[in-house]
Amino acid sequence: MTDIHKVNESLTVSSKINLLNDFVLSLEGRIANSTFNINEVAQLCTDFNLNRKYLRNQSLGHTLGTYTGWTHLHAESGYSIWKFSPTNYKYNSLNQLYFDDKSVSNEGLATSETATAFDKVFLNDGSTYTDNTTEAGTEEGTAFELMSDTTEYLYLGEASTFGGAKFEFSTRGSNYTLVAEYYNGATWEELGASGLEYTDDTSGFESDGKITWDIPEDWDTVAVDGETKYWVRFSTTTTPVTVAEAYYIIPSDSVIGLLAMSSEEFLNEEWKFCSYSGSIYVTIRNTGNSAYEGDYYLKSSSSTTNKQNFFIYNHEFKGDYEDSTYVASTLADNMPFSEPGWTSETVHNAIIEASTKGGAGIEDGDKGDITVSSEGAVWTIDNTAVTYAKIQNISATDKLLGRASSGAGSVEEITCTSFARTILDDADASTARNTLELVIGTHVLAPNGDGSGLTGVLTELKAGHGVDIISSNEIAVDETELDSDLIPFSYSGLTASNLEDALIELYNEKAETSQTFYIGTTQVAINRTSAALTLAGITLTAPDIGTPSAGVVTNLTGTASININGTVGATTPAAGTFTTVTASSTVQLGEASVKLYATLSDDEKWSGITIAGTLGATIAVGDLMYLNNDDGRWELADANLSDGYDKQLGICLLAGNDGDTTEVLVYGKVRSAAFPAFTVGSPLYMSETEGDITHTAPVTSNSATRLIGYALTAEDLLFNPSNDYYTHV
Fold this sequence. Notes:
Structural class: alpha+beta
Radius of gyration: 43 Å
Number of helices: 10
Helix content: 10-25%
Low-confidence stretches: 446-457, 546-550, 558-576
């Protein structure tokens, strides 16, 4: 096996390269082996129905739907702290985080998210105590000096023991040889002297960072300047050449404290993470060449695009961590059968016995609800073992078990109704017809839209009830043979003639208001009173529909040309509105015009040409936008020479958030509460403020001047953006 070690710098370049290649191949092999082990463990958990304690290879905020879960917490010089809340995350010292497959150092569990101050911070010059507590707990406040010679002490005090302190300097010191001490109940003792770990990441106050230590068991309180606390005091055994001045000294167990990075750690890219309240916090570089923002570094003020680039397209954080929903499995939970008198011990012994059979499995025989045969290869559930109570519960009332999906497969729930249940318990077809009220004589009335279901009824009527079928849409009634069973009412002196008159009168009376008829399966609605005719799905060939004095054509479609020139056929509509004109070919205007709406009625109203689009940020109605050529989404536009000033412009007509659909005005009139007061006839320009328009053309350095339209009224904008612009440099 290849031993991976540091390459000897004295080797030749080719030898170094060969060694590095061997190391890479060895690492790839070890990673593949580890991945296979993970697969095997996962399969064992599946086979034995065991709950898994750890979630593996969890991608964190790496998609368009999840990257917004990354939020900025705090900025330091050179790096920032970002927060993410993984699904079902629980802190464990074994948790791992990977940044582009490189391990990130786990700094442990924080006791708070934001920084907390020490109870007391004193500087003693040998005779006088100076209280710097307030300044030490205020980031970037007034700096204060630390020890300037070997006789002075810096005291940090808390009501309970603590494991470290985070230092931020305004002036970094030099030539300090630090000694840190705690009070053991009798005397001051040096931290780390008794074998406990002590780490100084500041390198003797020469850089920002942490000083941490293992908490001694004999640490005791003592009074310092009248304050009884757990104290740690710092001194120097050498006289400083440069006296350190601090902005900030806080306990190291907050998120900000745990993730404090020294200059050396930052230069070596030794990134860190910690945990607090179900979330993880990571350090990310926040400075660099602006051309590499979103790749090399990320800031709290970075654009949506750069955040997407960093977390989705250029980098990926992955985690292995404890599942907060984990419940330890017990052996009894995972046995698929039961046996009277069995205990965990007997089951355990049975499994051990089975494992010695060389793959033959559990010994054949009756195991209670299951019979094992064929040397353990076949397990048969007893017929009486599966009862209704052991079948999965039905989710609600009125459900049937069967197959709603096509083909063979698992049993599914089929939705039923209370009415359908009244049919299911009918004893025979006759009872079911009565339930459905579909009985005429001995025949069931079951029309299916074309009248074929009435064949039996008409045959019976013709055979013995004085009714003759003349044609497909006409019958004749012989009054001498009229069967009263066919008439749902009685009337003295009723004859076929006056019955026919009554039916005609009833027909006309119904049509006076509104009546629906069917031609085949097509619905026709006629209202004689209002002279309204509604046709659905019927093609009219060369119709003469008269001259409409007013009305609305809601859908006018055609596969060839539709000429809208003031006439329809040979008639001229006096007034009317076409709300939707759809054509697969040419829509041709006559000697007329397409007019924008004369007077917009209110704010957030428009008239013009629009297109559909997708928002790339949170945008309101009336905001000026540009089409981002990176992702095809509409972003807020401004005149700064960053992006958008030279792109396709539009006005937002449908507000929303990142990823929402929107409607974009690309030409036309628009009124919005977001607009400033206009001067009629004056030009309007793209503003240097995102999403705004202005009367004043930008002249600032690194900005662009681009005309976007003119004021038609004090409130209405004619939006017709120019394709030309000029820049100020």
